[in-house]
Amino acid sequence: MSCSKWKEVKLIDAVEMNPRTILKKGTLAKKVSMQDIAEFTRKIQSYEITEFTSGSKFKNGDTLFARITPCLENGKTAYVDILEDDEVAFGSTEFIVFRAKEGITDSKFVYYLTISPEFRNIAIKSMTGSSGRQRVQNDVLANTIINLPPLQEQKRIAHLLSVIDDKIELNNEMNKMLEEIAQAIFQRWFVDFEFPNENGEPYKSSGGKLVESELGMIPEGWKVATIGDLGSVVGGGTPSKKREDYFTSNGIPWITPKDLSNNKNRYIERGSIDITEEGLKNSSAKLLPKGTVLFSSRAPIGYLAIAKNDVTTNQGFKSVIPHKDIGTEFVFQVLKYNRELIESRASGTTFKEISGGELKKIPIVLPKIEVIKRYNEAVKSLGDLICNNEEEIKSLISIRDSLLPKLMSGEIRVPDAEREVEECLQKSN
DNA sequence: TCTGGGGATATATCTAAAAC
DNA sequence: GTTTTAGATATATCCCCAGA
Question: Which residue, A336, A268, A344, is CA-closest to A306?
């Protein structure tokens, strides 16, 4: 049901595809690789500055659209807003660059158009190429008929969706900062030994005594222990014969390293697939309680997450179920702080793997229990804040994804959608 | 500049050997 | 006998670049 003022036009008449953009060879410029784009995320995650040799070229306001399998299917599409006004950047050759046409389309509307399921499906269906390396056919996209609202309406739609994405980005920023604070506190207390003493003064600089240990000077009363002393170290498992009936969409959450590579959240509820009771029984995986720290131990060593509820993992993890008086946060930070050391103890030729035995043996400085207790009180709210922000992001994503196709097709109009968004934001605040 | 083939590397999966 | 470790192999992902 589209409004009469909406017009059916060919994409190429509304949007420039791979527009000519000038950047001289050898110029230093920002470079956005495929891995700098996250799945279904508007914001470009990172970039490097390097000499331009070849690749796609773009400016602020452009949309980068992955054209190769599986990046496109996985939702690698981003909006460029990391540049100065006249700055030109470049990136992977596997991007199609979309640019709004002056007076015809709005740049953010173009972004939301390209992430709408309808548009993505057309792109995905058009893909051809040798197996495993399918690419979008540009001319199919160019000739796709889209239902284009008047410019003002485009701006309203884009603005509304942007409000949601802005909030998601804000929450992500906030969480990044909170995580940095959490790390800084850990560093200050347990690496610099400036934890507050009984009088609330920083221990070391107010004359707290340090004594010799095999890990250098440490506060009196502390000791050198191992990661194995922090809790039980448990390996994961995969059912020996991969049988479909061992997996389900609503069983016991089963986490694999891949679930963490796509998901930078600190807390995890479930992975992309669950395991059945039967499957769990037929593997060496165990049920891990809420608060267990998951540490990927094979191939990508060092992905970290905290179980938000009971979960299991595949064999790519060693998990630490923290002792009661140590607590999740301390274990999480110890593993994070020692990531490189742990990786250096890994063995294996095809790829590195840290064995449970080796992981347990990694030496660490263990504070007095009362200090850990105070630490846990000090950082508890940080963890809670991060967790809440992550929850809020999830609900924002779900409202964005439900509104987007309806707004793009004209099924609902901006004022009605606005009300839904406001309700959602209100609830989360 | 555009298009698509294919190399390089990272990661997942399967499963056998080693360790318990 | 069961669990853990890790090699072989398959797949996923990203990048480079030749030829039109």
Answer: A268
pLDDT band at A421 (very low <50, low <70, confident <90, very high): confident
> What's the rounded Cα separation, in Å, for the pair A14 and A405?
19
Residues A235 and A359 in one domain: yes
CA of residue A410 to C1' of nucleotide B9, angstroms: 45
Q: How much is the CA Rg of chain A, to the nearest whole Å?
A: 25
pLDDT, one tens digit per residue, over A141-194 is: 888 889 999 999 999 999 999 999 999 999 999 999 999 999 999 999 999 999
Residue A213 lies in a domain: no
Instruction: Clarify whether residues A169 and A259 are in a common domain.
Output: no
* Distance measured from the CA of protein residue A264 to the C1' of nucleotide C14, in angstroms: 20
Domain assignment present for residue A211? The answer is no
In angstroms, the CA A120 to CA A240 distance is 37
Sign of CA dihedral A276, A278, A279, A280: positive
Find out whether A170 and A42 touch, Cβ atoms under 8 Å: no
Q: What is the mean pLDDT of residues A49-68?
A: 85
Please name the nucleotide lying closest to A129, CA to C1': B4
- Looking across all nucleic acid strands, the nucleotide with the smallest C1' to CA distance from residue A256 is B12
Which amino acid, one-letter code, is at A126?
S
Q: Which residue is nearest to nucleotide B1 (CA to C1')?
A: A20
* Domain around A62: 3-148
Q: Does residue A242 sit within a domain?
A: yes
Which of A12-16, A367-371, A388-392 has the lowest average pLDDT? Answer: A12-16
Q: What are phi and psi of A66, to 5 degrees?
A: -60, 135
Question: Is A419 part of a structural domain of the chain?
Answer: yes
Residues A103 and A17 in one domain: yes
pLDDT in tens, A266-321: 998 888 778 878 777 777 778 888 999 998 888 778 888 899 988 888 888 888 99
When pLDDT is cut at 50, 70 and 90, the band that residue A3 belongs to is: very low
CATH of the domain at A56: 3.90.220.20
Residues 6+ apart with CB under 8 A from A198: none
